Amino acid sequence: MSESDEGKQFGYIMELIEKGKVTIKNIERELICPACKELFTHPLILPCQHSICHKCVKEILFFTVEDSFTDAGSESSNQSSPRIRIHSPSMDRIERVARSGWKRNSLTPRTTIFPCPGCRHDIDLGERGINGLFRNFTLETIVERYRQAARAATAIMCDLCKPPPQESTKSCMDCSASYCNECFKIHHPWGTVKAQHEYVGPTTNFRPKILMCPEHEMERVNMYCEICRRPVCHLCKLGGSHANHKVTTMSSAYKTLKEKLSKDIDYLISKESQVKGQISELSLLMKETQCNGERAKEEASHNFDKLFDVLQERRSSALRAIDASKNLRLEKLQTQIEEYQGLLENNGLVGYAQEVLKETDQSCFVQTAKQLHVRIQKATESLKSFRPAAQASFEDFVLDTTKQEETLGDLSFYSSGLDVPEINEEQSRMYNKALISWEQPGKAELADTYILEYRKLNREEENAMWQETEVCNKSKVISDLDNNSSYAFRVRGYKGSICSPWSREVILHTPPASVYSFLFDDKCGYNQERLVLNAKRNSVESRAGFPLLLGAERIQVGCYMTLDYIIGDTGITKGKHFWAFRVESYSYLVKVGVASSAKIQEWFHNPRDVTSPRYEQDSGHDSGSEDTCFESSQPFTLVTLGMKKFFIPKAPTAPKDSANRILPMPSCVGICLDYDKGKVGFYDADHMKCLYERQVDCSGTMYPAFALMGSAGIHLEEAITAKYLEYPDDV
To answer: What is the CATH architecture assignment of 514-552+561-607+633-650+660-722?
Structure first.
């Protein structure tokens, strides 16, 4: 049974159950929530068509942590983890969850996302969150039948009987209550409206008779959206989120899906002998896996034993060397002590010399005293220059095991058949979040899973800990990164118990401030004759058009096109914010920056069809106006881009040579506005490098401002969000 069709197959399964073709106990595996591993309770259908308990969704959205998400269903995979290093159980942690709804006037986009426990793909619940999900009543009914089959001896009691209650004989779906025969007759008298209520056998599962739209709560669903794979109402189609989607009638969708599901189930049933054969093959594989696993354990244990033997031998050798040095030093020191003890009166050498002095025979005295005097002189010299015969320090015997510890820490099952993955720097990008994409080069086998590690590069903390997350595909979105920071990323692949080496580290820089979200304003001053907005309002292009040709025909000495202004639809009144955009390479002239609401009104209420290039404050011509305006803080700042160049505005202290003020135009341009400090900066957003910065008067509401002249195009950088699972087109 295909997991992607799970939500649509239960209706047909219900019919099979009713016909007695399916034993309820045989489908228990399909009735278990992948998150809590218990029978479903009020299951909800996710956009990926998997179901999950209502309480499980709420619990998942309650937790927000940075580590990778692994639901309870991954417990078995954790037991066979290919990594040697031991980490805290990842199944107790849930990956990045951003809670909230969307507000048009908010400075940053806020979404409600979480990974599906069934397929691990990120699910975006949108504005309505849990309220936008359908309740899977069909699955709920099957679970209730399973519960009844499991507790056949447990009776459902009447809800209306006086104590003690009687065993119920039927349940009313309209009243959502269970009755015994007597109570049912009392509360559903013959000839009344209640007598027409729908009743079934005793049950605790009461489902509504009509499925209502979660977005329009008073409307019943009567159509099926083929794009989103979900039922919708007529309001969703008329003006809602499904306005431009292809829909079909509910009866047509029911017939089509039921025919496909019936055909697929009939096909599976016809292949019963093949399935049984494959089950036998899998059973043999289980036994072989068991044997091979034990053999691999023995081999790994043997290899570790060899390492232990090497370590033990090196340990014994090192300890013997230390003992030998210790004994030699102790022996020297003991000898020196004995020599110095001989220098004491009536002891050793001094006592012997005192006895020699008592000799009265001159020849005998001279014979003995000569050698004794030499010894006495040596003892005297050693006394004057005292030096221990051995050092007590053993600093030469300290082992440096740093490299060995790193080597043992990376010890794993390497295979020449699994290539090193490569992080694709062109597809990877950093904006409000980090999107890391990688590829598996070569013709080697693809990895089953990947481990992506990242860490913040901090000068104060050189050896920052790596954070890791497990990924099933070849891309990952990382959130909760610090602003104005650099992060290193690396990835390795795993296939079973085999892993590849780490990829080359890639360093990405986060924006200098939180990403500010806005769209182009299509109302305030928008010139629809010369500017073209796309449907999403995140891209604008300018077109000269026929009126410009007519204007040029009337001018004999020359014609200059006007700047067509367009602004963001939300303003900034505090804080520090960053946004990025891309300027088309064919653009003739584009001005970008910030402007106050008063300055914008001045621009829009004083239109000029033909203008001299000396009129504009930052036109790129040496008119002299730039110098005078630059000295004081203005309520706007614009820089010029065009013809694949970035023009730094002219300053009084800047060199006269204009070539030094012209830079190659970045593929992605960023603007950072610090409202509180009255400062605006222009960045190469691909490398988060500041190209130009200056003061700006932020006394009023500031808006992102853009101006286009001639043929030009601007595209706002889209925020990095969780990607939906791509569903098959034939569903």
So the answer is: Sandwich (2.60)
